[in-house]
């Protein structure tokens, strides 16, 4: 494929890892590091010691401390900042983003207060640009070390999704396409809530059985909300749904899971978040998901308990007891469409 110009907004762990992968493929990459000290350090050492230590940046990544220069004349803009910062960074530099540039978002969250998905935020700021969300089970620490990884490029236009697939795909990074932007965005954001729960379970000393239950019942409630919000439930069975849920709930790379472990061990929310030192998207997303469950009248028991733990000083052990003691129910209501009880 033809080599293109990419502006990466955000030199955190994910922005840096993807910048490295794109640069190794031969694309010309501009990378925006917001913090001046970090910018100077990376420029000197060619290593992002704060967010991705131990990995060198190829020479064809140009480092910037100025966001306008990062995005100017670029064919593709990769948005790799925490979800709550997306609106602000795009407002800052939108005048320098050309209309033909494709906006690729990799943030996995939902906007506080507005309850919007990131595609909706981007559309408000850059209505003329094509949008794609790139998501899937992908820890930056592994992608930056060329470990095999899969991603999904979801866009409303097939042409746009296939363009992004071509730009990012490498022998180590396989990219699929999907037209379900809503499902891919919700899967990526909501799995962080369940990962906090999986971490809490680990922190309490519970075992693999509890985690398997959280993951399986977690994807059920994500699918229930996704369905009423217009997603295809099939998407939640894919890489950006269950795939990302598995990696986030089981990996020690996951900031959400690690934060959950600290909560399960008894640490206060603010202290736990601070100790991670990187973005823990699940904290804000839990509040948004809880509000969405009320708005759409969808039963989300795990999300609700995590919301209470984060906001109402709910005792974590009591939360588990209440989840276990909920009123009895069938496992999957829809199965009754396929298999009937013998006695009904
Ligand atoms: N780290 C990973 O493995 C993956 C992360 N993601 C998602 O990518 C997004 C970014 O995550 P990471 O790079 O991991 O985060 P990080 O915490 O490693 O880095 C965040 C970056 O955003 C910048 N930033 C923070 N607040 C900002 C603000 N208010 N305005 C402008 N810039 C700001 C920081 O300076 C830093 O460069 C998140 O939504 C995350 O869920 C998605 C897939 C994998
Ligand atoms: O989304 C991720 C992996 O796919 C990263 O998860 P964390 O933000 O929990 O580290």
Could you characterize the architecture of this molecule?
The chain is of the alpha/beta class. The protein has 2 domains: 5-179, NAD(P)-binding Rossmann-like Domain (Rossmann fold, 3-Layer(aba) Sandwich), CATH 3.40.50.720; 182-329, N-(1-d-carboxylethyl)-l-norvaline Dehydrogenase, domain 2 (Orthogonal Bundle). 49% of the residues lie in helices and 12% in strands. It is built from 15 helices and 8 strands. Strands 3-2-1-4-5-6-7-8 form an 8-stranded mixed β-sheet, sandwiched between helices. The longest helix has 23 residues, at 181-203. It is globular. The structure holds 1,4-dihydronicotinamide adenine dinucleotide and 1,3-dihydroxyacetonephosphate.
Secondary structure layout plus pairing:
Elements lengths: L4 E5 L3 H12 L3 E5 L3 H10 L15 E4 L2 H5 L4 E4 L3 H11 L8 E4 L12 H8 L5 E5 L4 H4 L5 E7 L2 H11 L4 E6 L2 H23 L4 H21 L10 H12 L4 H10 L4 H8 L4 H15 L5 H11 L4 H9 L20
Parallel strand pairs: 1-2, 1-4, 2-3, 4-5, 5-6, 7-8
Antiparallel strand pairs: 6-7
Helix pairs in contact: 4-5, 8-9, 8-10, 8-11, 8-13, 9-10, 11-12, 13-14, 14-15
1,4-dihydronicotinamide adenine dinucleotide binds next to helix 1 and helix 4.
Q: Notable features of this structure?
A:
2 domains; 344 residues; alpha/beta; N-(1-d-carboxylethyl)-l-norvaline Dehydrogenase, domain 2; Rossmann fold; 15 helices; binds 1,3-dihydroxyacetonephosphate; globular; 49% helix; binds 1,4-dihydronicotinamide adenine dinucleotide
CA radius of gyration: 20 Å
Largest sheet: 8 strands, mixed
What average pLDDT do the residues reach?
97
> CATH class of the largest domain, please?
Alpha Beta
The structure class reads alpha/beta
| Proportion of beta-strand residues | 5-15%
The oligomerization state is single chain
**CATH architecture classification of the largest domain:** 3-Layer(aba) Sandwich
> How many helix segments?
15
pLDDT < 50 runs, ≥5 residues = none
CATH superfamily of the largest domain: NAD(P)-binding Rossmann-like Domain
Q: Which ligands are bound?
A: 1,4-dihydronicotinamide adenine dinucleotide, 1,3-dihydroxyacetonephosphate
Give the helix proportion (percent range): 40-55%
Beta strand count: 8
Going across the biggest sheet, name each strand in turn.
Answer: 3-2-1-4-5-6-7-8
Could you give the distance between the termini? 59 Å
Shape: globular
- How many structural domains can be distinguished in the coordinates? 2
The ordered H/E elements are: EHEHEHEHEHEHEHEHHHHHHHH
CATH topology of the largest domain: Rossmann fold
Protein name: Glycerol-3-phosphate dehydrogenase [NAD(P)+]
Subcellular location: Cytoplasm
EC number: 1.1.1.94
Family: Belongs to the NAD-dependent glycerol-3-phosphate dehydrogenase family.
């Amino acid at each position: 494929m033809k080599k293109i110009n990419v502006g990466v907004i955000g030199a955190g762990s994910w922005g840096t890892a993807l910048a490295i992968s794109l640069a190794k493929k031969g694309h010309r990459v501009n990378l925006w590091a917001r913090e001046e000290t970090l910018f100077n350090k990376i420029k000197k050492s060619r290593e992002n010691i704060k967010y991705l230590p131990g990995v060198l940046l190829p020479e064809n990544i140009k480092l910037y401390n100025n966001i306008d220069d990062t995005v100017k004349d670029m064919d593709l803009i990769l948005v790799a900042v925490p979800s709550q910062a997306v609106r602000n960074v795009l407002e800052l530099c939108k005048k320098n983003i050309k209309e033909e540039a494709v906006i690729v978002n990799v943030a996995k969250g939902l906007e506080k207060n507005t309850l919007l998905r990131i595609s909706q935020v981007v559309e408000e700021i850059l209505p003329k640009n094509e949008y794609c969300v790139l998501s899937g089970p992908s820890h930056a620490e592994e992608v930056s070390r060329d470990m095999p990884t899969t991603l999904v490029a979801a866009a409303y236009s097939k042409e746009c999704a296939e363009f992004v697939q071509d730009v990012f795909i490498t022998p180590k990074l396989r990219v699929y396409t999907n037209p379900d932007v809503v499902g891919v965005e919700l899967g990526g954001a909501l799995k962080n809530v369940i990962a906090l729960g999986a971490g809490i379970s680990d922190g309490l000393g519970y075992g693999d059985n509890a985690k398997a239950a959280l993951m399986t019942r977690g994807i059920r409630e994500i699918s229930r909300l996704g369905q009423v919000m217009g997603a295809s439930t099939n998407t939640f069975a894919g890489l950006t749904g269950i795939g990302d849920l598995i990696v986030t709930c089981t990996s020690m790379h996951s900031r959400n899971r690690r934060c959950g472990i600290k909560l399960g061990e008894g640490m206060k929310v603010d202290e736990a978040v601070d100790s991670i030192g990187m973005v823990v998207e699940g904290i804000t997303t839990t509040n948004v998901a809880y509000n969405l469950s009320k708005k759409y009248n969808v039963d989300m028991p795990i999300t609700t308990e995590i919301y209470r733990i984060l906001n109402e000083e709910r005792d974590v052990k009591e939360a588990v007891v209440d989840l276990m003691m909920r009123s009895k129910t069938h496992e999957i209501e829809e199965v009754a469409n396929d298999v009937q009880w013998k006695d009904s």
